[in-house]
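Have a close read of the entry that follows and walk me through the local backbone shapes. See right below:
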Amino acid sequence: MTSFWLALSAAFKWSFGFFDFSANVLNWILFLVATGFFCYWCYILVVTLGAQKDKDYHSPTEGKHPYYDPKIYKNEG
């Protein structure tokens, strides 16, 4: 019976080591993805909107979705 518990203990030690290793790998993958998003965000800020280019930027939805639409909110008075 002791050999069963020793084998079970070895399996648990292996599984926790595996989870520790896989969590470390997952953390590195998420870190690299987040770094990629950050670099893309910096690229958009510097290249697309930098050097006063933001004055030439026009939003594709500007004016199409106004906060107050008189067709929806009619004056009942």
